[in-house]
User: What shape does this take?
Amino acid sequence: MSNAIKVYRHALSGHCHRIELMLSLLGLPATFIDVDLAAGEHKAPPFLNLNAFAQVPVLDDQGVILSDSNAILVYLERRYGSGHWLPNDPLKQAQVQRWLSVAAGPLANSAMKARLVTVFNAPFDPEPLIADAHELFTIMDAHLAHQPFLAGDQATLAEVSLYSYIAHAPEGNVSLEPYPHIRDWLQRIEALEGFVPMGVTKVGLVS
Assistant: This one.
């Protein structure tokens, strides 16, 4: 489809799955172009012409080129959404932004990196990463005990940005068993119309 959105991705990247999930939730057609990270394709032209930071995902919306998964989520909602995923209300929008920051900070530096060790053989010490993930999940589980979604009563970009690496945290040896409210929250996301899963890797606690 020549006018479809193009997404340069790696299929096992949670950052890339965020974009695939958002596109599906919005009902937008897309073409996915796999980037061979193991071969260093992301560190050479022409990919560097798309993203000088040498990271996936990259979105090409008929010539509009964007990188950074959370920035792409905001663009897709503002360009094609109705305000459901990123409310216009200042307080609600700030609450969503808070969780986007959690996705880019505490989650990326804990459960995501722990998964990189098992899935991609990244040279990190997994034990402190796993401990930090449990600290984050304890906070989130208590938060979700009082409301169905992170920013209130409806799913927002907060869910899209955090789902992938939390759902797949067991692949990095981070158990979700102690967190019933997080597990219920994951099920609510998976029940959304348009939800698409990310492929499971049989490593860590999933093996």
Observations:
- The first strand starts at residue 5 and ends at 9.
- The beta strands are 5-9, 30-34, 58-61, 64-67.
- Residues 90-191 form a domain with the Glutathione S-transferase Yfyf (Class Pi); Chain A, domain 2 fold (CATH 1.20.1050.10).
- The CA atoms of residues 32 and 140 lie 32 Å apart.
